[in-house]
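TICKET: design request
STATUS: open
ATTACHED STRUCTURE:
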């Protein structure tokens, strides 16, 4: 079994540097995917309300625990607060629902998924709620502020519902805003990060403030081609670029492993998604070789500043004004 390094969080807890992302893991296979990942050595699982598969992922965890493969305290389970639950009084109830879905008593890390507050949708009406109030095309914004939402997240810690809290898809200005009033500082920032979107200044800020960074979509456009985004379909897939292929051949590694090592060697945590056991194992084995400084610089030079996971990429033109 591969030994995975830990990252020490400002909360005092250790977070595995390599985990499994659960976005787009289909419900019918999610229990087996999580179970097989635990058997392969994964201990961090990155979920969210919006993924719609927390019940099934929890079933995989329960199976592994029941069989004695792992103990709950050896796992690091991450979930996220969806946009429709930003109002302070909605936070704890939805966290308790998500914990029940997972079948656990606490989250190791709980994040604000997006810095966008939408009007509340009761889980009995539709769950996950999606972006749209009516489930179709109507977006209704909530008046909840990030400060109100963050304060509600802070209350999860003494209540024993979350050991660490953090944010996702925040940029520098919002991070600075949270740091002004936070009584519990964000332990992590989760962002889209790959060689086409390096965001080095944001990484520098997080390092200076002691905020660990988790990278998602480490393979760039590969995760978004199904959404028919222009950049995702026209850009050369990162694993097919000459630079990545050349470096991979030199090290005797897969191109995917080079991309993941580029992130982990620079101190980031990663949560690549896969449903195949052989890929799960390969993605986990990305901290036992080193790229040269020149290779890291060569990969970083692919930066184009292109972001795929932003709300305006998913919505019709008439809705873009909401997100700028």
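STATUS: resolved
RESOLUTION: sequence designed for all positions
ATTACHED SEQUENCE:
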């Amino acid at each position: 079994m591969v030994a995975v390094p830990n990252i020490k969080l400002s909360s005092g807890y250790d977070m595995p540097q390599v985990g499994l992302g659960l976005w787009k893991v289909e419900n019918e296979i999610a229990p087996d995917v999580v179970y097989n990942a635990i058997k392969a050595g994964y201990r961090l699982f990155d979920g969210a309300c919006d993924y719609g598969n927390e019940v099934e992922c929890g079933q995989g965890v329960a199976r592994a625990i029941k069989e004695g493969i792992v103990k709950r305290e050896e796992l690091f389970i991450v979930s996220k607060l969806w946009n429709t639950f930003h109002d302070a009084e909605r936070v704890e109830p939805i966290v308790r629902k998500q914990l029940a879905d997972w079948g656990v008593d606490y989250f190791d890390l709980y994040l604000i998924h997006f810095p966008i507050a939408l009007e509340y949708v009761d889980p009995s009406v539709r769950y996950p709620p999606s972006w749209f109030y009516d489930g179709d095309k109507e977006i209704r914004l909530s008046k909840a502020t990030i400060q109100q939402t963050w304060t509600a997240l802070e209350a999860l810690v003494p209540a024993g519902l979350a050991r660490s809290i953090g944010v996702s898809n925040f940029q520098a200005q919002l991070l600075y805003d949270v740091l002004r009033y936070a009584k519990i500082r964000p332990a992590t920032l989760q962002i889209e990060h790959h060689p086409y979107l390096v965001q080095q200044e944001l990484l520098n800020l997080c390092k200076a403030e002691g905020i660990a960074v988790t990278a998602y979509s480490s393979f760039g456009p590969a995760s978004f081609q199904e959404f028919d985004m222009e950049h995702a379909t026209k850009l050369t897939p990162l694993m097919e670029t000459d630079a990545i292929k050349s470096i991979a051949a030199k090290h005797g590694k897969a191109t995917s492993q080079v991309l993941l090592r580029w992130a982990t060697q620079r101190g980031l945590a990663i949560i690549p998604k896969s449903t195949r056991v052989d890929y799960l194992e390969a993605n986990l084995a990305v901290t036992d070789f080193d790229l040269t400084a020149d290779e890291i610089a060569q990969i970083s030079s692919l930066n184009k500043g292109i972001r795929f996971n932003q709300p305006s990429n998913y919505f019709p033109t008439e809705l873009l004004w909401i997100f700028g």
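CLOSING REMARK: The longest strand covers residues 162-168. The chain has one domain: 6-323.
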